[in-house]
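Posting this for the archive.
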Amino acid sequence: MPIRHPLHPQSSGTGRFHGLDFLRAAMMLLGVVIHTALVYHEPQIWIYEDPNRTAFAGILVLGIHIFRMPVFFVMAGFFAAMLFNRRGSTGFASHRYDRIVLPLVIGWFVLFPLLSWSISFAYTWSYLPAGDRTLGLAYEKMSLNADFAEAGPMHLWFLYYLVYYYLAFGVLTIILRNFTGPVGGWLRRGFNAFSTGPLRWIRIPILVIATTALMLTMKEPGIDTAESFWPLWHVIFLYGFYFGIGWLVFGDRQIVDRLKEWAWWRFGLGVFLLIVAVIMGIATHFAVDAEGEHSRAIFIVNQVIQATTCWVLILGLTGVAERLFHRENTVVRYFVDASYWIYLMHLPLCFFIPALFRGWDAPGLVKMPVMILLVTAVLLVVYHLAVRGTGLGVLLNGRRYPVWPFTRGQAAEPPPTE
């Protein structure tokens, strides 16, 4: 039976949120866009680069980087709270172990060698004379070593951080429920006042101020990237704030319906702010690199703009997604199911496939979207044939699905948090 959450009053209406489910999946799929686009970034900042690069790749990467992980962690917090509410602390821990910890551990030991080999192949392929390039020759000359001593979490860092958040918010919830008397109720009523109550008009300023304070701890403009298993605590606290807001929002789910009102206006404002944030981000990078007189002030303004952009976009995207996907769509549901697999496995292919097409003399602005589509298509085919109806599908999606046709079949829907 569901356990009453101290910040989440039990109610009916905890069915699947199709729009939020889609939004969470979309943020994962944008990882393919970012990591493929980096190959075509001008100037080069990635491990491997294509000779045909484009400045638009950098704009695209910066724009997505500003909002992608904040949106994802808000969605992750929301669905984690839903799962805790439905299954209780023991069921929650067991479910997250199966869906997050096991894919993290198993995936890392599989993906790190694959990533090392794909990078080695990409460099070997680029150095081979164009007329002599064959897969067999590249395999003979490439290195098959994988130096685990210098390994980092790769793109799986978000799973690593999610484990921290599940532990922290799960334990905090248990404490509030069992040891603090009415405190949980006070907190819930206080949050409701800001989310849908009389103080809702100042929720954006409060969120922006709190987020900006956390973002001022960053070493680089925007949000620092996790590159080590050693936790970056300032990054954990920032994304934890986003996760915590999502966790709390589940306790006042009326806000999701209310965000459907004026959703397109919020989304449009968010897109406008994103354009401003990208321009400001580029200017800030130049100012910080030059270590100019006003670089710190410019850095602060940049962090304020990015924090504001994120929250306006989160509210706008939430409302728009729930308006567009208020009922199940078979094709969208398929991509939602596949998104976890695609994100976990995409990074090696983001080097391997662009390297194969290195000799294609086309503008980077053309090659980049083609490579993004190819990487996604290959992973979709593998998902459909080797994951969706197998034990891997059980590990990632909670059950085996029919592999043909592209539907979910007649079997019962899994719980919304699966």
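The chain has one domain: 18-397. The chain has 13 helices and no strands.
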